[in-house]
Write a structure and sequence with these properties.
Blueprint lengths: L6 E7 L3 E8 L5 E8 L1 H4 L12 E2 L1 H17 L8 E8 L4 E4 L20 E2 L7 H13 L18 H11 L1 H4 L4 E4 H10 L11 H7 L12 H7 L1 H9 L10 E4 L2 H7 L6 E3 L2 E2 H8 L6 E6 L3 E8 L15 E4 L6 E8 L3 H17 L5 H19 L10 E3 L17 E3 L7 H25 L6 E5 L1 H5 L1 H11 L3 E4 L4 H13 L6 H8 L3 E5 L3 H26 L1
Helix pairs in contact: 3-4, 8-9, 11-17, 12-13, 13-14, 14-16, 17-18
Length: 553
């Protein structure tokens, strides 16, 4: 295929915004790109950080996606008529209560301002108690332990925990709901006009990693198990159907209404959705032995492995976020780990430092925004001059709970070893080191269970921006960190799937070779520093063990 002949769109729905990229399928070059920020989310609407409540209105997604597509296409007017397919990824698990047509309840005027009728963002931790309840029942009920392929622990960040929380705390709204739908399932259904539950093609990625779907027990947890938690969960189970689909499969065709709204050809394929880290890993050229770390507000660590031969059983890896055949690349098991806070930890420090300026009314708002953008780069620059020693202070990275190894969202962050000489740059370095210690623990969890990691690729905003952060990551893990040459990996990954769904490439691997990004820089580990960090890592593990003991009493 010649350059300029055909394009696909990749849409990446992140925590704060959606980015849409138009990609030339001949060589992966970008013909247009635009980021649109969610307007309601930007104001903090429907969120309460002190309660760990983070909700997003579906109109934020619709309005921002429309703007991003139109703006990306306007950069090159010849592109729109040559678009051959669309793929999209979202954060997850980010589900919403919906009506019998799969429409989020917040789109009903009666519930337009009700947070429980909106999408429950991945980082919402209001369902910690319900996650504990699911874990306890899984151990005791006498049937299959449905957490087996979810790392052995079910998280408050995931589908059933969030649904159970809303049922427990707002039963009046569940009376108006017919189901619970993932963000990555709803968007393709919306664009293709799919208005019946039994027609929605559910994401294999979402179902396997967050809904405990697995072929060994014929799909989702049984109605019997879910009814023991609450009968409404069993009703939702029935609405999900039995089949799940990989992201290279079309969910349907773009409707005339949406084609007109977006300025695209009618009937082009819209791919089944998936999660951002998994699609991003494809854009980062994930492969056997290649772990792609998506590093932003949080992290997701993705790697693939072979499916067992016929007659062999799949080995469950304890402590990770989950493992699902086809969740990343069809025909391979996709393994996921991650941290609940990475860039969010640094942002927390920035917000602490900025608090006086924001509340003393001595600086204009525009000036505050300018200062805020400079705080973290200044802290990182100063932190770079600090050499680690075996007596350096050590922080724990669980400020937003722990995703892996072994999910526990009730765990807390910690700063230890502080003195009167510990200034802001020293705290910044502590946080950079703590997130790298957490990353090392995940790598060790994978390898201790036989999942070999030969290469680490870093994608995402923090990976691109934080040179010192990636060097510390290399020094602490003792591994070279390969940083991609742009921050578009999720959108490029989406383009890979869209091009396969459109029939342009035969499979994901072939499309990866044609479209994926290269490497901008490689951070080689400093082995002298690693020797120091080995000692500090032992302290990190000891302090973490103490924190866990305190949590469990």
């Amino acid at each position: 295929m010649k350059k300029g002949e055909a394009y696909v769109l990749g849409a990446d729905f992140g925590s704060d915004s959606v980015r849409v990229v138009a990609v030339d399928v001949a060589d992966g070059s970008v013909a247009g790109s635009h980021v649109s920020y969610y307007p309601r989310w930007k104001t903090g609407a429907y969120c309460d950080p002190k309660r760990n409540q983070f909700r997003q209105h579906p109109l934020d997604y619709v309005e921002s996606f429309t703007e991003a597509v139109q703006s990306a296409l306007s950069q090159n007017p010849a592109v729109a008529s040559r678009v051959r397919g669309i793929s999209m990824d979202t954060t997850g698990s980010t589900p919403s209560l919906c009506d019998a047509d799969g429409k989020p309840l917040a789109l009903d005027k009666r519930f337009s301002d009700n947070p429980d009728a909106m999408f429950v963002l991945w980082k919402d931790h209001t369902a910690v108690g319900e996650a504990d309840e699911i874990n306890a029942l899984s151990k005791s009920w006498g049937g299959p332990d449905y957490r087996k392929f979810s790392g052995g622990t079910y998280s408050s960040e995931w589908f059933w925990s969030k649904l159970l929380h809303i049922v427990r705390h707002n039963p009046s709204i569940t009376a108006h709901a017919a189901g619970f739908i993932e963000h990555c399932d709803w968007l393709p259904a919306l664009l293709t006009g799919t208005e019946a539950f039994d027609k929605i093609k559910r994401s294999r990625c979402a179902a396997g990693h967050k809904l405990m779907w697995h072929p060994s027990w014929n799909g989702y947890p049984s109605s019997e198990f879910l009814t023991l938690l609450d009968p409404f969960l069993a009703i939702v189970r029935e609405s999900l159907g039995t089949e799940t689909y990989t992201a290279d499969i079309p969910a349907g065709a773009l409707t005339q209404e949406w084609a007109k709204k977006l300025g695209l050809p009618v009937g082009i394929p819209v791919c089944v959705g998936a999660y951002d880290a998994h699609i991003g890993a494809v854009g980062g050229k994930v492969a056997k032995g290649v772990m792609v770390k998506s590093i932003g507000t949080s992290t997701c660590d993705i790697i693939i492995g072979d499916v067992p031969s016929k007659g062999e059983q799949e080995q469950a890896v304890d402590g990770i976020v989950g493992q699902v055949t086809g969740s990343v690349i069809p025909g391979y098991i996709g393994y996921e780990g991650g941290q609940s806070a990475f860039g969010d930890y640094y942002a927390w420090l920035r917000d602490v430092i900025m608090w006086p300026l924001k509340h003393l009314d001595i600086v204009e708002e525009q000036q505050i925004e300018k200062i805020e953008k400079k705080v973290l780069p200044m802290l990182e620059n100063a932190a770079q001059a600090i050499e680690p020693t075996e007596s350096s202070p050590v922080a724990i990275d669980w400020i937003n709970g722990r995703r892996s190894p072994y999910a526990d969202q009730m765990l807390k962050g910690a700063l230890t070893g502080l003195t009167l000489g510990t200034d802001a740059p020293a705290v910044m370095r502590m946080l950079l080191e703590s997130t790298a210690f957490g990353a090392r623990a995940i790598l060790e969890c994978f390898e201790n269970s036989g999942v070999r990691v030969e290469k680490v690729v870093a994608i995402g905003g923090v990976a691109r921006k934080s040179v010192i952060g990636m060097q510390i990551l290399a020094d602490i893990t003792g591994r070279a960190i390969h940083v991609t040459d742009n921050d578009l990996a999720p959108s490029i990954g989406g383009a890979v799937f869209a091009s396969v769904a459109a029939g342009i490439y035969k499979d994901v691997e072939e499309a990866q070779e044609a479209l994926c990004s290269g490497t901008e820089r490689v951070h080689e580990p400093d082995l002298e520093r690693k020797a120091v960090y080995d000692t500090l890592y032992e302290r990190y593990l000891q302090i973490g063990a103490f924190e866990e003991k305190q949590r469990r009493g």
